[in-house]
Amino acid sequence: MNTSLICLQGLSGSGKTTVANFLASTLKMPVYHSDVERKALFGLSPSHNSRQAGMNIYTEEATRQTFQVLYSRAFEELSAGNSVIVDAAFLKHHERQTMRKLAEKAKARFLIVQCQADRQVMIDRINARRLQGDDPSEATGELVLGQEQWIEALTTDEIRMCIKVCTEDKSWQETLFQRTTHFLNGGLLSEK
């Protein structure tokens, strides 16, 4: 399998972390989660609620710092010859482009796995994990509505290196595993 950088992309509640953990387990790759890295930057454990701690860790600067950590982690893995998965929303083109350039610099394959789900399903997932109280994500249903407004669509080039996954589908794991391993072994995404 070729050295690869896989970026999960999608709105909050779309299933990115579930998909990232599935890929990490089946492909035996390390995974870095933006929610966990963001909290670590501020000295919080993954399950600690920043609002309860009186902190605002979702400023533009905190987001910039979080992505810088993710870029650094991915670069370290790729420099060591390891494939890596990065789990973040990647809503902005420049965030995805920086990861793509990182992969190119390391001569690694670059793949975007775009997670999708119905809006109400995403909101229901977010509400369920908020009730559990132990999830690193602090997303809300209102955030999903905002993200729908400011997400930057994948470019034509990005679509060529993207696998879309509807996490509501019963067979998403099998289909994703087959398409991902095909790509990571040098195949094109247009091939089945």
Q: What can you see in these coordinates?
A:
This protein has helices at residues 16-27, 34-41, 60-79, 93-105, 119-132, 141-150, 156-159, 172-184; strands at residues 4-9, 31-33, 84-87, 109-116, 162-166. It has one domain: P-loop containing nucleotide triphosphate hydrolases (Rossmann fold). Helix content is 49%, strand content 14%. It has 8 helices and 5 strands; from the N terminus they run βαβααβαβαααβα. The model has no long low-confidence stretch (mean pLDDT 93). It is α/β, with parallel strands linked by helices and 192 residues long. Strands 2-3-1-4-5 form a 5-stranded parallel beta sheet, with helices on both faces.
Question: How would you briefly describe this protein structure?
Answer:
The protein has eight helices and five strands, in the order E-H-E-H-H-E-H-E-H-H-H-E-H. Helix 2 (about 35-40) packs across helix 3 (about 60-80) and helix 3 (about 60-80) packs parallel to helix 4. With about 190 residues, it is an alpha/beta fold.
Question: What topology emerges from the helices and strands here?
Answer:
Layout: E1 4-9, H1 16-27, E2 31-33, H2 34-41, H3 60-79, E3 84-87, H4 93-105, E4 109-116, H5 119-132, H6 141-150, H7 156-159, E5 162-166, H8 172-184
Parallel strand pairs: 1-3, 1-4, 2-3, 4-5
Helix pairs in contact: 2-3, 3-4, 5-6
